[in-house]
Design brief:
Elements (H helix, E strand, L loop, with lengths): L1 E10 L2 E11 L4 E5 L6 H9 L6 E6 L2 E2 L5 H5 L2 E4 L11 H6 L14 H13 L15 H14 L4 E5 L7 H18 L2 E5 L3 H7 L2 E6 L2 E6 L1 H4 L2 H8 L3 E5 L6 E5 L8
Parallel strand pairs: 3-8, 3-9, 6-7, 7-8
Antiparallel strand pairs: 1-2, 1-4, 4-5, 9-10, 11-12
Bound molecules: adenosine-5'-diphosphate and magnesium ion (MG).
């Protein structure tokens, strides 16, 4: 569904992604992890076509992204970006309706279907009660959910999420990740999400891609990637990995606290 082939991306002369390859299949959630500056956001931006590749390619449903117009891309890929620079004077509903832009007719009029999609996206992100509020008056976490709803309203087969849980409390973290999970499992979407929290990556992803200095270090199932050895090498800090008592997923605990013996 989404194929990243030997992708390299540079800012000026500095390579931010170096020969990265992996794919996200229909119905799959892939988590992108790695230390700060590893290139996660760069990969999300390049996968959406917002950043040009220096070499390599991104294929979406078998078509090279370079051969698609902006509108054609927007019908295939929706992005929840890390930065929240939403127009503050728009209401939540108006902002989510913007997700329908790639489907509007030449007069730019929203149809009943467009409005229906926007309301459904608001429901799925528990934002219905906030529909008439101005985006500029919302908390960071609420704005994050507005971005998620806007991406859902776009009704694309592929979702790209850049740290979608960063500003959210525990309840809304679980809701956003369960939603991502269910969109993959029940609606056959391909979901790629950069995640800061390794334990959430282990719990919600089918596969994990670990980036370090712009390179794919390891790709595999959570228990193959989230090992003490891989994490200590990538994050340069000792960690301890245990098994989630209920789900069996890897849980990463900090280790090596100074000045205290076990
Ligand atoms: P991550 O999301 O994993 O923290 P980024 O993709 O944001 O990492 O950044 C990867 C590298 O590219 C970092 O070294 C960062 O400083 C650099 N970088 C990111 N955005 C830009 C930019 N707009 N211009 C120049 N360098 C950038
Ligand atoms: Mg980032």
């Amino acid at each position: 569904m989404l194929e990243i082939n030997s992708l390299s991306v540079a800012y000026g002369h500095r390579l931010a992604l170096d020969n990265v390859s992996f794919s996200v299949r229909e119905g799959e959630v892939v988590a992108l992890i790695g230390p700060n500056g590893a290139g996660k956001s760069t990969l999300i931006r390049a996968a959406s076509g917002a950043l040009p590749a220096r070499s390599g390619s991104v294929h979406v449903e078998g078509v090279n992204l370079r051969h698609l117009s902006v509108v054609e891309r927007a019908r295939r890929l929706a992005v929840v970006p890390q930065a929240r620079n939403l127009p503050p004077a728009f209401t939540v509903y108006e902002t989510v309706l913007l997700g329908r832009t790639p489907y509007l007719g030449w007069m730019g009029q929203a149809s009943d279907l467009d409005r229906e999609c926007a309301w459904r996206a608001l429901e799925r992100t528990q934002l219905t009660a906030l529909a008439e509020r101005r985006v500029g008056e919302l908390s960071g976490g609420e704005q994050q959910r507005v971005l998620m709803a806007r991406a859902l309203a776009q009704e694309t087969p592929i979702l790209l999420l850049d740290e979608p849980t960063t500003h959210l409390d525990l309840q809304h973290q679980a809701e956003v990740l369960n939603l991502a999970r269910s969109l993959a499992s029940h609606h056959h979407k391909a979901v790629l999400m950069a995640l800061h929290d390794l334990n959430l990556a282990g719990l919600y992803a089918d596969r994990v891609v670990m980036l370090v200095n712009g390179r794919t270090q390891v790709v595999g199932a959570p228990h193959e990637v989230l090992t003490e050895q891989n994490l200590t090498a990538a994050y340069r800090v000792p960690v301890h990995v245990v098994t989630h008592p209920e789900y069996g997923s890897p849980l990463v605990l900090p280790d090596g606290r100074e000045g205290r013996q076990p």
